[in-house]
Amino acid sequence: MAIIIDGKELAKKTRQNLKIECDELKNKGINPRLAVIMVGDNPASKVYVRNKSKACQEVGVEYEEYLLDSNITQKDLIDLIKKLNNDKNINGILLQSPIPKHLDINEAFRTIDYNKDVDGFHPMNVGKLTLGEDTFVSCTPYGVMRMFEEYNIDLCGKNVVILGRSNIVGKPLTQCCLNKNATITVCHSKTQNTKKLTKEADIVISAIGKPKFITEDMIKEGAIVIDVGINRDENGKIVGDVDFENVKQKASYITPVPGGVGPMTVAMLINNVIKAAKNQNEKIL
After folding, report:
1. With the C-alpha atoms ordered 19, 262, 247, 156, is the resulting torsion angle positive or negative?
2. Which residues pair with 117 in a beta bridge?
3. Which tens digit of pLDDT belongs to each residue from 94-121?
4. H/E element holding 26?
5. Among all residues, which ones are annotated catalytic?
6. Which residues are paired to 224 by β-bridges?
7. Scanning 85, 138, 176, 253, which has the fewest C-beta atoms within 10 Å of its C-beta?
């Protein structure tokens, strides 16, 4: 029976430590502040934004929200980002995705000052991650890496299979694991024999958004299973990409959904905001 990796508890511990750091910065006259831009009214995005706002409040990070109409022009979005780039009181800028299809999200990410890019999506920060330099790491992959640390899971030499190649999770996570000397295989919609590859893996990380896709017969005895997926099953219940009840009988470690990677994503965002505030005030500190 697998050890359950408790993301909720680890996120709580992380936020407590971040609150101490945040209080220390405030004592030096530095008030970490995050600006979140949300375009349109995607219901899932609203939930994520609310969770981010709540976590900021708990840690003591100041929070500004920009709710934009879904018909906004690209120019208006870019102008707002530039305005926030130039605002010395803003340490971190986050553009909540998805955004309406008529807008170019990549141009928006490129426009965010990479020193304030707390989501780790700017090409400069993506490049630094690839080079193994200190940078802002995308919050979900960063949360997964923190879980490995907390549970003393050493990636060196391990055979890691990642399902999904998105810019938000799959690609940065691949680089994070490579930086820890793991051997990586990335599976995606065009991969042949996914099951054969997952069965040989020491660690399986799924981020594809298919409910209960990873079944017990797809992993080997004692594998570590990290579930990044958030889906709803036929009854409207939130489930991951992994058939949790059956897979946990065979895995050595497993993350639940909800209560696994999700809370860590938000905690690592706050971590990045505080890091940004420190970087931008190096001369004072």
Report:
1. negative
2. 93
3. 999 999 999 999 999 999 999 999 999 9
4. helix 7-27
5. 52, 96, 119
6. 203, 253
7. 85
